[in-house]
Amino acid sequence: MDQEKIGEFISEKRKEKGLTQAELAEKLGITDRAVSKWERGKSLPDASIMLELCFILGITVNDLLSGEVVSMENYGKENEKNLIEMVKLKEASDKRLLSLEIVIGVISSLFLFSTVAAGAWLGKSGAEVWIPVVVICFGFLQFIVAMAFSIRVEQVAGYYECKECGHRYVPSYVSVLFAMHTGRTRYMKCPECGKRSWQKKVVSK
Known about the structure:
It is a single chain. Helices cover 65% and strands 9% of the residues. By secondary structure, it is an alpha+beta fold. Among the domains are: 3-70, 434 Repressor (Amino-terminal Domain), CATH 1.10.260.40; 158-205, no CATH class. Strands 2-1-5-4-3 form a five-stranded antiparallel beta sheet. Helix 2 (21-28) crosses helix 3 (32-39) and helix 6 packs antiparallel against helix 7 (130-156). The longest helix is centred in the middle third of the chain and has 53 residues, at 72-124.
């Protein structure tokens, strides 16, 4: 997927509609900086606003992802190509998110250890009792928040695969939060077959 080509195409279609970057951004409820980044090939429009953008520019999603108006005779071929590219982009994004989860876990754990150690040192050094308590509580609070965010990342990145029927799906946050787990393998109920099993996290569907 050629981001620069897509960016030039967005710019061309925007100008054909007589819109400035700021006017297009206002219609989409985003900043003109985001539009500028698209047109310079630095990023792609989010999936959540892609349909609205295409409606405003008078093009199809297939046209947008191809960076040109696709003729009917090539429509099916280009559509398949664009779908494959979108799947690849999602998989790459999910891998980055899962890597971020590890980083968050390591940093928050180190911070928790540091605050507990600092609290213990302050307690021995003769500081008022409430000071080490506050320090340690702060460490635990940030750890809880970081873990809640990490679970959210794990929930939305990729899919869980049912061991019984092979169905791959994105479970609810509550299901992931309260499921027994070892690493990224969680014991959950499959929405397809209704059976509980140890389900592994996978990136591709």
